[in-house]
Design goal:
The protein is mainly α. It folds into two domains: 109 residues, no CATH class; 86 residues. A hairpin with a 2-residue loop joins strand 1 and strand 2. Helix 4 packs parallel to helix 7 and helix 7 packs antiparallel against helix 8. The protein is rod-shaped, with a radius of gyration of 30 Å. 21% of the residues are buried.
């Protein structure tokens, strides 16, 4: 959310607090009650969308780093066994196919690292039945395969988070337009009937309708400020 939207949401929360305190005055007025329910529903949804929009990507980045390191470590271990085997049988092509250092794997671009680990996995699968004497087990190959799958899955997480945030941003804008319509064109208008009959209710509602920004009151027509 923008700073302006957060301020506006706080205003909506303040309005709902006042309306709840004075609900015995308006709860029998069907139109008024329906509009309050609609506003409260919008506010609840806005809070949910804000959580989606502001979901941190730090955890995703840390998860990706950890999975990349695990995958690379497993690939390096199996690659070393394959290189030893390739040297023993005089197969320089196999040796070079898996000739990656930890730096080659960790410092490469994300998809490149995955591709290099897949190469090691493919070579290992081709000869795993021959490498019992080299301490290469089927479980090691399976573990590397799973680590690659987990790493590839986490690569998509930042993009998914961005996509979800974009959808939430659009949803939030629509919810604020709906809330503005409820307040300006419905509740504000109906509140005029309480100005003389219930002045305390009327005044507290008016006070709650002020959007406060950094301790300063301003009107709803001012430009929104993005953080």
């Amino acid at each position: 959310m923008t700073i302006r939207q957060i301020n506006k949401l706080n205003m909506c929360l303040a309005v709902l607090m006042v309306l709840t305190r004075f609900r015995t005055i308006w709860e029998t007025v069907v139109a008024f009650s329906n509009d309050v329910t609609a506003l409260r529903s919008n506010v609840d949804t806005l809070n949910a969308e804000r959580q989606k929009q502001e979901r941190t990507k730090t955890g995703v980045a840390k998860d990706k780093k950890g999975k990349k390191h695990r995958m690379s470590s497993l690939a390096l271990r199996i690659g070393g066994i394959l290189q030893s085997y390739a040297t023993a049988i005089g197969n320089p092509i196999l040796y070079e196919n898996v000739n990656y250092s930890m730096t080659d794997l960790i410092d490469a671009r994300d998809t490149v690292t995955a591709d290099r680990c897949r190469i090691i996995l493919t070579e290992a699968r081709a000869v795993e039945n021959l490498l019992g004497d080299y301490n290469l087990t089927p479980a090691m190959v399976t573990e590397l395969s799973g680590a690659i799958d987990e790493y590839v899955d986490v690569l998509a997480a930042p993009r998914i988070a961005i996509s979800e945030g974009s959808v939430s941003t659009r949803n939030i804008a629509g919810l604020f337009r709906s809330s503005d319509n409820i307040l300006k064109n419905k509740l504000d208008k109906m509140m005029l009937s309480y100005e003389t009959t219930n002045p305390d209710f009327f005044q507290e509602y008016q006070n709650a309708r002020i959007i406060v920004d950094l301790g300063k009151g301003h009107t709803e027509g001012e430009e929104e400020v993005k953080p």
